[in-house]
Write a structure and sequence with these properties.
Layout (H helix, E strand, L loop, with lengths): L7 H9 L6 E5 L2 E4 H17 L7 E5 L4 H12 L3 E4 L6 H11 L3 E4 L8 H6 L5 E4 L8 E2 H5 L14 E7 L7 E6 H13 L8 E4 L6 H12 L3 E4 L5 H10 L4 E3 L2 H9 L13 E4 L6 H10 L4 E6 L9 E3 L6 H5 L8 E2 L3 E6 L12 E7 L5 E2 L3 H7 E2 L2 E10 L5 E6 L3 E4 L2 E4 H9 L4 E11 L3 E10 L7 H9 L10 E5 L13 H9 L8
Parallel strand pairs: 1-11, 3-4, 3-5, 5-6, 6-7, 10-11, 10-12, 12-13, 13-14, 26-27
Antiparallel strand pairs: 1-2, 8-9, 9-19, 14-15, 15-16, 17-18, 18-21, 20-21, 21-22, 23-24, 25-26
């Protein structure tokens, strides 16, 4: 029988063994060594089992970044359960859908997220054990109760066992629970480390929210090196720069918007980045002006771009530091998304799934060890997405003669604004509920700060009057604020339609993207 790959917990425990006295994390001025961190996770796992959690059960987390969140990334799979990080930026109705979909037995909540979600949390009180990550609450289980349990052995889940479910927005308006396995997520994070990212002993910045898979991947790479996670509760430019300088951060993941905001922070001093060796960036392309500014301010830093998605366990391609400098930069290759990692294969295919030659644009297909198990409770969508052994990304792209991938459009009409994935169909669905709206299309348009912003094009019903402010307020009642339009364009005649009656978004996008070096970004 073939050897089964180690599970998530056993891999991290093995990495930490030589460094048990070294700091595992830093958070708000506090720190703890690896020995204490592993013991804490083992006791929380014991507490979960005492609550009745069994292998394969789902355990959800609704929390800001913290050292407790790091502990839960270890403790939940340690107990044999499946981690479900909930998006703290979603509104209660959106997270209620995720809870109804994955039916967790336990939900951890940080203090700052109780009040905004109070009604939802009360509704689930008789169905889910709510664990407070802060103060005592009537009817809730305190984290201290779990920590008082005896430490337990790792449940030993591994291979294709389900490790986590990450919810993403849905192109049809329904969220998708992406199922990632122990083996798949470990394969992806290990491949990134083999590329040189987040090496053993680094001090890694963890500031993007830990409900994002990219942040989870950084945390995991850090733990696989027995390294130190420097955790920020949330991103703000000045505070993050302070954290980088004061804690001697050596490696970081930052989305381009964060980099620009750091550069624009009052009193920005590049000397505060002296210890930083590598910045990995992704979620959206970096504007050339921003890349030029940060490389001029900190020429010693290596920049590495990642392209991927939740469905491939984070990353499919990497564009190394060499491609950001010298002859590659002069040839424009820094505008690419990189080459496939060794665990991934990429082809560009036409609508029938046939491979296309270099230079031709088609859909990006990915296969390899990191590809998801499927979508939770959505077998038809899983079958549609995982066809012929390939993950159909819905992204449009091309490969050049050097094998570098260029992402040129988003077939699924996803907008990436400030590193957040926003699905146009979801925003359109919210706007369409307004009685004054006859036609609506939502597109991404260039934005100097956010990369893209959500832009709505509206045709009002005959005789109806509605303002931009009213439509945005209407949206905010139904979806998270960051998904709502930042600009609205009102038309007096029908939006452009195809022969089949579909709105031609390409025609709506075209005027906004003229003169841009990319169609995405």
């Amino acid at each position: 029988m073939a050897d089964v790959p180690p599970g998530y917990v056993s891999a991290i425990r093995a990495a930490a063994q030589p460094r048990l006295d070294a700091p595992a994390w830093v958070f708000e001025g506090r720190t703890a060594p690896w020995a204490e961190t592993l013991d804490r996770a083992a006791r929380i796992a014991g507490g979960l089992q005492a609550l009745g959690v069994t292998p394969g059960d789902r355990v959800a987390v609704l929390s800001a970044n913290s050292s407790d969140y790091l502990a839960l990334y270890l403790a939940v799979p340690w107990a044999g359960a499946v981690l479900v990080p909930l998006n703290s930026r979603w509104n209660p109705a959106e997270n209620a859908f995720a809870l109804d979909d994955c039916t967790p037995g336990v939900l951890f909540v940080s203090d700052d997220l109780v009040a905004p979600n109070a009604a939802m949390l009360d509704e689930y009180g008789d169905r889910i054990t709510r664990v407070s990550l802060g103060g005592d609450r009537l009817g809730w289980t305190p984290l201290a109760q779990l920590l008082a349990a005896d430490a337990v052995d790792d449940a030993g889940r591994n291979g294709d066992d389900l490790l986590a479910i990450f919810y993403t927005g849905g192109t049809t308006g329904r969220s998708k629970g992406v199922m990632l396995s122990h083996a798949g997520f470990l394969a992806n994070t290990r491949a990134m480390r083999e590329f040189g990212l987040f090496p053993d002993g680094c001090r890694a910045l963890v500031v993007p929210p830990l409900f994002h898979l990219a942040a989870a991947a950084v945390l995991t790479m850090t733990m696989l090196g027995g390294s130190t996670a420097v955790i920020g509760k949330a991103f703000d430019p000045a505070g993050t720069l302070d954290l980088i300088a004061e804690e001697g951060v050596t490696d970081a993941l930052l989305v381009p918007t964060m980099i620009q905001m750091i550069l624009d922070a009052p009193g920005f001093d590049p000397a505060r980045l002296t210890e930083v060796r590598t910045i990995m960036y992704g979620a959206s392309p970096m504007q050339e002006a921003t890349l030029d500014r940060i490389m001029a301010a900190a020429p010693h830093i290596d920049f590495v771009q990642a392209y991927g998605m939740t469905e491939v366990s984070c990353t499919a391609t990497l564009l190394g530091a060499d491609y950001h400098r010298g002859e590659h930069r002069e040839a424009g290759r820094h505008r690419g998304a990189g080459k496939p990692m060794p665990i991934a294969q990429i082809v560009i295919a036409d609508e029938a799934g046939n491979p296309l030659p270099a230079g031709e644009v088609g859909e990006i297909l990915v296969r390899g060890a990191g590809v998801m198990l499927g979508y939770w409770n959505q077998p038809e969508l899983t079958a549609q997405t995982l066809r012929g052994g390939w993950m159909h990304t819905g992204d449009g792209g091309r490969l050049d003669d050097h094998g570098i991938l260029y992402v040129v459009d988003r077939i699924k009409d996803m907008i990436v604004s400030g590193g957040e994935n926003i699905y146009s169909a979801e925003v359109e669905g919210a706007l369409a509920l307004h009685p004054a709206v006859a036609q609506v299309a939502v597109i991404g348009v260039p934005d100097a700060r956010w990369g893209e912003r959500v832009h709505a094009v509206i045709l009002a019903r005959t005789g109806a009057e509605v303002s931009e402010a009213a439509l945005v307020a209407h949206c905010r009642e139904r979806i998270a604020g960051y998904k709502c339009p930042r600009s609205i364009e009102f038309r007096t005649a029908s939006l452009p339609l195809s022969a089949a009656g579909k709105i031609l978004k390409a025609e709506l996008r075209a005027p906004h993207w003229q003169g841009q070096t990319r169609n995405v970004g």
